[in-house]
């Protein structure tokens, strides 16, 4: 059965569609089917084979083609062909009938597409025509222009070669004249000059000739550099000096890049130019040699003018950065060699052996020693310090040369381009020449000193022990270069360069500081060697303070070393404070005043306080001897010594004041308002005053004797403050004694006299400044005690007059007025004990005490008015008190 008609028509031909045809039509459906070959095959009775089958595989004789039309009869073949034609016609007709709508639409689309293709074809034709016109207008002129441009380039190259050749010839002739002037012109005397000249004229003439030669060399260098630029990128390595060869790989300074000359013809290809090249190379070598000699001479003699001329020559030769870098490296290397030689013990040994007498032929020759013996140690030490002095001298010379070079580079400018030479040199240098030199010097010092200290115990011990002497050598070094450099090394300011160099000696400095710290710690340990049995005292404190002062004085000449020693001393002083704090007794027995003698704890604390006080006293005097910056380092630790001393003394002083105040407060147990005092035997002092005198004698003889604080004015304040407290407390208690009669006043006067005697004896035996009473030195408190006697016997009207109450505080006068009146005292009004009130007054200001009295007066007035009591007699005392309070407002 035939396939649908639409399938054959719609699907395009492909191997897949061939396989869908009926077997009888497969041969006819092939694109390679040839009717003539098929008819010939049928007539010949042979099978018809497609050309593609014959190419892919041969047809064997035994191969049988099934139902091949070629093997049938002609009539049968024609019948089959006719049938096939009819069948195909029917199928086509069926396809057309079934798909006539699609065929019509495709035909219409094809017709429309045909019209569009016609317009496109017309447009393409116009485009081809326009393109042809443009080709005629553009291509022909372009080809002509290209020819002319090529010709112009060749003319320009020829013109450039001629121009550069002309310039080269001019420069070469100028160089010849300059070289001739440099070699012989300066040595030919001017015939026009007088034959007889003075020495000054000859000196000036020689200087002018030298200046002229230097200028000629600089001009020749500029000509050589320009000639080298003219020769192009094929410059030979023979043109490079030793300086340039060293840095050729890193930076071929002065040589143009290859890209600058890619389109230029080298002048070396010109025969007229090539003839001059050897002469220019010789001239360059001579100018370079002269330049190097001028540089060395200028640095050696520190001739800035000559050095500036040589640097100008180097700049003209395009080798200034390389020259400066090479000079800095050579000077740094020279310093490194000097330092290495100074610390080389093998050379020191050879030097000492060479100074000794020549050995006899039979004497045994030992190997060179690298460490001295006990006998040769002084010779080795002297040789070492001599080498170090030479090393410092060489370091100073090299440093001055570097700074001279940098100064000239900073000042000198090129006359044409106005380029500063230092900026030009910095194109190759990473830092300024001086900074580079200082860094190299510090690095070399640090390395050689570290290696020397590590390899030789002799060097380590000698230079650590003699580190101050080594520092003094470097002080001389800084002083020598200070004239030529901007470095400063004084107590107030140290240049960073000097600090870097001295930090390179940190190995020996640390060893010296270790020795110093060990010495300080040994003095501290020796002071505490007796432990609690024999605690340190005045002698040990003085020894420790002197050790600290001696160490600071030894390092006083160097601002950095003395600060380091001060920091080390601070640690030792802090150790003293910590050890004393651990040894101080703080229990009740250390402050008890029972007697009859001081407790062992008080003796220990007294010895420790004495030790702290004398250590602090001597160390505090260092503020006048040392610089302020140095003393400020140890000042906190010195203050800690005094604070530790106060932590020992203050609790005992507080206990003494409390005990004496308690004894004085016992006066209120006696009735001073009676006509006669039965407590006073035979008109003597009161019992409380006898107790007070005994207790004061106990404190003086037993307690204060353990504290050897001396008689210095700084220690005197402890006793003086205690005496002032006693007088003030006694007067306050006396002023509030109530009731007070005439006999009581006399008894109090007797007690005051006894108190003066006791205090005078206390001060006389505590001070060696005067033999006798010294209560006048107490100050206002003593005047207050002396003024208290007449106050007791004044009339009421005299209590407000200043001439009768001079030396007494207003509060004491107020108390005495209230004692005479029926008005209650402030402590009675508030329900306080007398001792509590006195303590309150001591802890508060006078203004607060006056306010308290004023408040008591106001309270009494209000209470009296409310109760309706008679107050005429008491008002006179109120008025007196008001007048005293009013007078306090004027103070």
Automatic annotation (TrEMBL):
PANTHER family membership: CONSERVED OLIGOMERIC GOLGI COMPLEX COMPONENT 5, CONSERVED OLIGOMERIC GOLGI COMPLEX SUBUNIT 5
Keyword set includes Cell wall biogenesis/degradation: no
Keyword annotations from UniProtKB, A to Z: Golgi apparatus, Membrane
Annotated ranges, domain Conserved oligomeric Golgi complex subunit 5 N-terminal: 27-175
CC terms in the record's Gene Ontology section: Golgi membrane; Golgi transport complex
Residues in Conserved oligomeric Golgi complex subunit 5 helical domain copies: 267-478
Location(s) in or outside the cell: Golgi apparatus membrane
Main location per the UniProt record: Golgi
Protein name, per record: Conserved oligomeric Golgi complex subunit 5
One of the GO biological process terms: intra-Golgi vesicle-mediated transport
Organism, scientific name: Armillaria novae-zelandiae
């Amino acid at each position: 059965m035939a396939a649908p008609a639409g399938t054959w028509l719609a699907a395009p031909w492909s191997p897949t569609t061939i396989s869908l045809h009926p077997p009888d039509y497969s041969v006819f459906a092939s694109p390679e089917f040839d009717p003539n070959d098929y008819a010939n095959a049928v007539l010949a009775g042979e099978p018809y084979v497609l050309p593609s089958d014959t190419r892919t595989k041969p047809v064997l004789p035994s191969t049988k083609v099934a139902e091949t039309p070629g093997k049938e009869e002609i009539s049968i073949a024609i019948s089959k062909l006719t049938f096939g034609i009819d069948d195909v016609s029917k199928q086509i007709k069926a396809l057309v009938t079934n798909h006539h709508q699609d065929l019509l639409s495709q035909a219409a689309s094809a017709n429309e597409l045909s019209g569009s293709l016609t317009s496109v074809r017309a447009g393409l034709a116009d485009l081809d025509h326009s393109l042809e016109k443009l080709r005629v207008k553009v291509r022909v002129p372009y080809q002509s222009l290209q020819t002319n441009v090529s010709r112009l380039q060749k003319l320009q190259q020829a013109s450039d070669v001629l121009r550069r050749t002309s310039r080269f010839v001019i420069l070469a002739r100028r160089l010849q004249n300059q070289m001739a002037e440099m070699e012989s012109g300066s040595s030919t005397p001017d015939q026009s000059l007088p034959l007889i000249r003075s020495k000054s004229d000859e000196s000036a003439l020689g200087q002018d000739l030298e200046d002229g030669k230097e200028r000629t060399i600089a001009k020749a260098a500029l000509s050589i550099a320009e000639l080298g630029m003219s020769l192009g990128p094929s410059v030979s390595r023979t043109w490079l000096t030793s300086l340039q060869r060293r840095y050729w790989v890193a930076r071929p300074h002065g040589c143009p890049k290859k890209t600058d000359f890619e389109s230029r013809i080298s002048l070396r290809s010109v025969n007229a130019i090539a003839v001059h090249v050897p002469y220019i190379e010789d001239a360059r070598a001579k100018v370079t040699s002269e330049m190097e000699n001028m540089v060395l001479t200028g640095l050696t003699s520190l001739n800035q003018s000559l050095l500036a001329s040589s640097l100008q020559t180097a700049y003209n030769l395009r080798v200034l950065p390389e020259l400066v870098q090479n000079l800095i490296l050579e000077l740094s290397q020279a310093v490194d060699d000097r330092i290495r030689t100074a610390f080389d013990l093998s050379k020191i040994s050879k030097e000492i052996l060479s100074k000794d007498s020549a050995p006899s032929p039979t004497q045994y020759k030992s190997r060179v020693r690298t460490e001295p013996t006990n006998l040769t140690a002084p010779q080795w030490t002297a040789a070492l310090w001599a080498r170090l002095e030479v090393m410092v001298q060489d370091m100073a010379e090299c440093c001055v040369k570097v700074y001279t070079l940098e100064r000239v580079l900073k000042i000198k400018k090129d006359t044409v381009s106005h380029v500063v030479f230092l900026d030009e040199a910095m194109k190759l240098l990473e830092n300024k020449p001086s900074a580079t030199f200082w860094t190299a010097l510090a690095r070399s010092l640090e390395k050689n000193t570290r290696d020397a200290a590590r390899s030789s115990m002799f060097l380590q011990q000698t230079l650590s022990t003699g580190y101050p002497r080594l520092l003094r050598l470097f002080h001389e070094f800084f002083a020598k270069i200070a004239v030529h450099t901007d470095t400063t090394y004084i107590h107030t300011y140290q240049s960073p360069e000097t600090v870097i160099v001295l930090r390179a000696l940190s190995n020996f400095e640390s060893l010296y500081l270790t020795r110093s710290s060990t010495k300080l710690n040994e003095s501290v340990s020796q002071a505490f060697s007796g432990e609690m049995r024999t605690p340190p005292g005045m002698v040990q404190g003085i020894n420790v303070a002197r050790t600290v002062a001696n160490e600071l004085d030894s390092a006083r000449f160097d601002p950095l070393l003395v600060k380091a020693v001060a920091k080390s001393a601070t640690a030792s002083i802090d150790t003293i404070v910590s050890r004393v704090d651990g040894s101080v007794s703080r229990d009740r027995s250390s402050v008890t005043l029972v007697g009859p003698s001081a407790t062992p704890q008080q003796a220990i604390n007294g010895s420790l306080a004495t030790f702290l006080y004398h250590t602090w006293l001597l160390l505090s005097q260092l503020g006048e001897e040392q610089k302020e910056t140095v003393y400020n380092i140890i000042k906190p630790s010195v203050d800690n010594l005094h604070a530790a001393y106060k932590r020992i003394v203050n609790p005992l002083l507080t206990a003494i004041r409390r005990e004496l105040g308690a004894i004085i407060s016992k006066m209120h147990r006696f009735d001073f308002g009676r006509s006669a005092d039965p407590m006073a035997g035979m008109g003597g002092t009161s019992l409380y005053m006898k107790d007070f005198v005994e207790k004061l004698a106990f404190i003086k003889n037993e307690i204060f004797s353990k504290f050897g604080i001396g008689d210095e004015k700084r220690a005197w304040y402890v006793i003086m403050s205690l005496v002032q407290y006693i007088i003030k407390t006694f007067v306050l208690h006396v002023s509030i004694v109530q009731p007070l009669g005439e006999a009581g006043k006399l008894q109090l006067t007797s007690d005051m006299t006894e108190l003066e005697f006791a205090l005078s004896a206390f001060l006389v035996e505590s001070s060696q400044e005067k033999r006798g009473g010294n209560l006048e030195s107490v100050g206002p408190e003593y005047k207050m005690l002396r003024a208290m006697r007449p106050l007791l016997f004044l009339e009421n009207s005299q209590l407000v007059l200043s001439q009768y109450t001079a030396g007494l505080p207003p509060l004491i006068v107020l108390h005495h007025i209230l004692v005479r009146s029926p008005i209650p005292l402030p402590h009675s009004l508030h329900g306080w004990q007398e001792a509590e009130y006195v303590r309150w007054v001591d802890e508060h200001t006078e203004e607060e005490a006056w306010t308290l009295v004023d408040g008591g007066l106001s309270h009494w007035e209000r209470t009296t008015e409310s109760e309706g009591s008679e107050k005429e007699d008491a008002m006179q005392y109120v008025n007196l008190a008001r007048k005293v309070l009013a007078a306090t407002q004027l103070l």
